[in-house]
Structures are given as C-alpha cells and as structure tokens.
Amino acid sequence: MSVNKFLDPKSDFVFKKIFGTEKHKNLLIHFLNDVLYEKYKPEIAKITRIKYVQTIQVPDSATGKEMVVDVLCEDSKNRQYIVEMQLSPFASFEDRACAYLSRVYSRQLNAGMKYNQHRPVFLVAIVNNTLFKGYSDYRYDHRLICEQTGQQHIKKLHLTFFDLTKFKKNNIAALKTMEEKWLYSFKHAPEVDINGEEHQKLIKNSAILKEAYVALDETSWTKEERLQRERAQITAIDTDAALEFQREEGIKLGKAEGEAKKEREFVLGMHALGIAKELIAKSAKLTIEKVATILAGH
What we know:
Layout: H1 12-19, H2 25-40, E1 50-52, E2 56-57, E3 67-68, E4 71-75, E5 80-86, H3 93-106, E6 121-127, E7 139-143, E8 157-163, H4 178-188, H5 197-203, H6 207-215, H7 223-272, H8 277-284, H9 288-296
C-alpha cells in the first residue's frame, strides 16, 4: 500500500512557495518569531505583520554582481529579514550570506537620509550541509561583538545559521520547542506519512504547524501551482544536466591541456639536448610538423 508523503520544504520552489508568498505569509511570521524573538528580545518585539521586498538585488554598477535571495521581507518597524535555504553544498556560503546581508543593509538609505536611519537586518539560513566543521551545534548566531568590552555596541547586523546535518532529534516526542519542530519538519517532512499517527502528534496543539503541513500537501495546491512546480523541477533538472556537461567538458579540456603541456616540455627538452626533430617526433609519436610548431612557438 502506497503512503502519501509531504513535499520537501528544502526544495527551492516549495521553500519559496511556503515562505515567500502572500498566501502563506503567516507561516513566515511565526517561523521568524520562533527562531529569533527569544534570542533577541527585548531588542526586537514580536513580528505581527510583514511585507515582502524585491528579492533581486541589482548591482550598483554595470560591472557589479547581481544577487538574488530566496525570501526578503520587512516588519512594521522596517527591520529586514533575509531567509535562505541552501540545499546543495556551496563553497564559501558564509561569505555569500555576508554579501547578502551587507547589500540589503547598504540599500536602505536614499539621498538625504542619515546613517542612523539604518534599520537592523537579520539573515536566517537553513543549510543542508555541514557548516563550521569541528563543532557539534546546529545553531550558530553571529553578531558584531567588541573584542575589548565584550559588548555588542553595533546591533544592526545579525546572521543565524541552522545546520540540518547536526540537528539530531529524530523522535517527535523529543521535540520541545517550536524551533526544534520547524527544523524537524525541514529535515523530515518528506518522510512523514500524511495520515500517520506520528504526524498527528507533531501538529497536535499547534495551529501554525498544521497550516504548514497543509501547505506541504500537494493535494491542497491548485492546478496552476502544481504546473509551476513541475516546470521548476524540469528547469532544475536541465540546469543540473548543463552544469554536469560543463564539468565533464572542463575535465576533458584539462586533460587535453595537460597532455599538450607534457608534449611541449618533452619536445623542448629533447631539442635542448641537440636531438634532431625527426628523432624527437618519433620518440614523442608526433608528426614532424607538430614538433616544428612547438619549437617555433618557443
């Protein structure tokens, strides 16, 4: 008998659908409160409403780098929140997160505004590969701390990373906080039986988790939403195939360049010893014309 499963909230399209659309704005508000409020109160009040902001961060110049974040919003106090899901390994993801944070922060001021009008920016990243190797924590909060005083005098830049590979609570009964239940859902939702007893235990007494899992049930999606997801999957497959082709071609090119370098070094070395071109060509299994080209280019 087949078991109905939920969609994977870690996938790019589903994540943005759940947290980046007006339809499910309530989920994002609760998630941000659940992972940030207890940590940063009284610096921040609970979020009661948000508005979404353009996720494409256009560069300041023609040679600048365009940045696209997964979800960007601001609350009623104009504090801004970047929410990222990183499913695949990505080199220097922490540096990319800093670039996102600084770009959003620097874009807040228009002509005539003062620097003290900058509002806090929070970046929350859920990462499905190991960050900060050698440490066992699954949550890492980064803020600007003064080395001399040990105090946080500058309170407007915050980065929080959740490493799902280090989140080890796999038993629903062991989940104590909403943060843990969110992380469990990110990690295990695709394994949860929609009609199973464990699922009912997870959403019991939590209207927001129930809403989240309804959103992850594809049967609750409209026909157009399902078609959009299928198109996104096809695009992702095509992109992966193109990247794999480029990787294989790069390997072939690297091998070819390596062989050419060896040939050139051999020919030049033999020539330096005064050996005739005909003998060099025979030894290297090259044509005399090829040997002559190498020597002429030296």
